[in-house]
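User: Could you walk me through two proteins back to back? I'd like the raw sequence and the structure tokens for each, with a short line separating them so I can tell where one ends and the next begins.

Assistant: Of course. Protein one, sequence then structure:
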Amino acid sequence: MPFNRDQMAARAADDIPEGWVVNLGVGMPTNISNKVPLEREVIFQSENGVLGIGPAPAPGHENPWLINAGKGLITLRPGGSYCHHADSFAMIRGGHIDLCVLGGFEVAENGDLANWATSENDTAPAVGGAMDLGAGAKRLWVLMDHTTKDGRPKLVEACGYPLTALGTVNRIYTNLGVFEVQRGLGFVVLDLAPGVTFEEAQSKSAAKLHRPS
């Protein structure tokens, strides 16, 4: 069976090394902070000026003033802190973020990412902080469903939507598996969800998949 969204987040969380500073994009990626045990030191950063985000608050323990960049309610890990918005983006643009995990509409086999607009009529006014994160983080992973609701592939030869970042995606986590972007080769299958075959993943992708060497 394909991974559900909790399993996708847990799979990505398991791959984050101890001690990394990680920014989680709006939407599906924010669930990753719920899947890292408190005994593991992973420092989650949010561009609105929070360093040391913990899991989502338990019901009845929400603090309406404590939110991430997507306005989702969060908690603070022991030792966590707040900073000015400008300092937060200095961390991002200065190359101090070990990993950023973003959602995606499309990822191209050369590592391009489109994740903020699907047409000229979208309500999003601009690409926002995702552009800075895509260019400034040391590594960029994408967490997304493998296809759209109507079955259109999201792993493609070239993105058809406006780009967020050019050639910076390293890895993609979908409900079908884990895929690495290897420069000059394209998408390499690192892992597949239980029961999902290579042929099934290929049939739901618009770019060629490669088996690991």
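----
Protein two, same layout:
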Amino acid sequence: MDITTNNKDNATILSIAGRVDTATAPVLEQAINKEIEAGHRRVLLNFSAVSYISSGGLRVLLATAKKLKGADDKFSICGLSPEVLKILKLAGFTSIFSIYPSEGEALAGW
């Protein structure tokens, strides 16, 4: 899994590529926590290059949502492949997270 971080429109965007599974979920969680600890409270995960997410990855998403619950906080996911979206739907997570088709639509929705 590769993670690229950049800032755009007052948001921190983490672009993830590869599989988010039991082995890689802790790396993703560490990258997200680093941004939150640095004071970045508007986090967008771009999953357009993610082919799979396991329960370990879902746990990271839940933990992040719990950390970013303040009035000015934002947490969204964009670019889900049909396979990853199906997993989130089956887990009931589509009602928990703000999910957008693209980065631009996510940032415009904030």
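The first helix runs from residue 25 to 37.

Let me know if you want the two compared in more detail.
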